[in-house]
Each structure stands twice: as C-alpha cells, then as structure tokens.
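Internal ticket #5521
Category: modeling
Description: The requester needs a full-assembly model to guide mutagenesis choices. All entity lines are attached below as received. Residue total reported by intake: 316.
Assigned to: D.W.
Attached entities:
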Amino acid sequence: MESNGFDISFKRRNRGKSMRVAMITLLVTLIVVPTTLCVVLLFRISSLQNEINELMESHSVVADNNSSTDGALSDGETTSSTEEQSSTDEITTEIPTETTTVEPLPDGKYAYLTFDDGPSANTEAILDVLDQYGVKATFFVNGHTGSTMEARYKAIVDRGHALGIHTYTHKYDSVYGGIESFANEVESLRKYLYDITGVDVRLFRFPGGSSNTIVDDITPYIQWINDNGYSYHDWNCSSGDADSKKPTAQQIIDNCMVQVDQGYRNLVILMHDTKSKDTTVEALPMLIEKLLENGYEIRAIDERSVPVHHREIEAE
Ligand SMILES: [Zn+2]
C-alpha cells in the first residue's frame, strides 16, 4: 500500500510537471512567436517606408519639373549628362531615370513664338525674321521627307531654335487611332529628327492641342507623353493664322495683342509654318516689335519654360 501510495503521488507530481511544461511551452509559443513576428514585420515596414520615401522624392522632382518648368525631360541634352550616351546612331528609347532640378526663370514677361506643321517653303523666311531681331522660337514639326526638308530641320537647329514633335503624319486617324499608333507617330518622328539633326527632341504638341475634340478621351495620350519622357505644350494665344478665312498680317497681330493687352506674363503664341501662311511671315516683324515694346522677353521653349496645358491629368 505504501509503495502504491508513493507511486500515485509520484505519478501526480509527474503529471503536474508535464502540465507545467505544457503550459510554459504554450506561453512561450503565445509570447515568443508573435513577438518575433512583430520584430520581423517592423523591420520589413521600415525598409518599405524607406523605399516609399525614395520613390516619393524622385516622383516629386519629376512632378515638379513637369508642372512648373516644362520638365527636365524636355530636352535630353540637359538631363542626359548622367545617362549613358548611345554610341551608335540608334536613338535610345530609354527614359532618363535621373532628373535634375531646373532653376525656374526669374519673374518676368515671357513670350514664346511657336510654329506648327512645318517645315515649309516659309521656314527660311521665318528664320530670317527671327535672326533679324535676335530672338528664338519653337517649331513643332511633322515628318516631311526629302533633302530640301532635311535642310530646313537642320537650319532650325543650327540657327538656335527649338524643335518640337507634332507627330509624324499629323493625320488624326493615325495620331489618335490608339496608343500604339500614337506612340509610333511620336517615336518615329523623334528618330527621324535625331537622324537628321542629332537632337533628341522631347518637346511635344498634340495635333489640335490637348483640348482637341477629335479624340473622346485624351487622358491615355497625355499619360503616354508624361510616362515616356516628353513634355507637351499647348498655347494661350492663337494668332488665328489657321482660320478658314485667311487673316491679314494686321489681323494676326491684332489677334495676338488681345492676350498681350490682358497682361499675360507667360504667352505661348500659336502660329503655323506652312506654304500658304505668307501673312504669318508678313506679320512677324511687327508682332515681335510689339512684344518687345510690351516688355516681353522672347524665348524658345526649354526646360525652364512654364508649359501651357489645356488639359492635364493628375500626377499619380
Ligand atoms: Zn498642327
């Protein structure tokens, strides 16, 4: 009996001990495992936060450049110092990943003469007037082939003006016939201009402007432009030189003066460089004189210019 009683109490003690072990194991499992998980997760969160911060920083530089200064991506030349230069004639399709903050223009009145749809038989005459006044302009060109046209693209660049892409064909069906077609319209002209002039053109103007009514939804097209290292430029002053009833030189000047008289300090003037636009050439000297008289500095669009946008999409 005695030994039996000892046996029972030993078994009880033993059972008590294994229950304590089980309890401790349970407690350890309940405390240690979640704690370890917490620590691991905290580390993960902190490293993700760092990544987010880095992305936000680079994103804010891009957004800043795009909204206030035409974007450091606009000209390739200014941003590609840190990028590898393509050693072949092949134009690189890579988007610059690093952006430089661009000093904004000092407070002042700026006017941008922009000529769409060229080059043309009038390009030379336009360049001569610009040279005469020592001012620079921006030419949003299309894809025109032939040695005469090639010489005109070169002359625009050689004489210090800015080139912009206005799509290869300017045909609305093709330009706004889906993103793939649009991308081809932009990229093929970029390559063509690069082959002729050596300039990686990053300025862009939508045929019809970003507020055109040809396309139901311009958003994906703007998104593509923003995502692919271009900056787009509309206008806030139309010379009216593409109106169905051809304006006289005086009417072109008067049209432009409406915005001047309203005190616009960042004036982007829409004009056209096509064969039939002789009154545009005729109006140009007087227009330049009036702009200068009104205190404007006339510039070519560059990364320091504040872009005019008819339509914008929210930066992500
Ligand atoms: Zn056009």
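Resolution: model delivered.
Comment from assignee: Confidence is low (pLDDT under 50) at residues 52-88.
Ticket closed.
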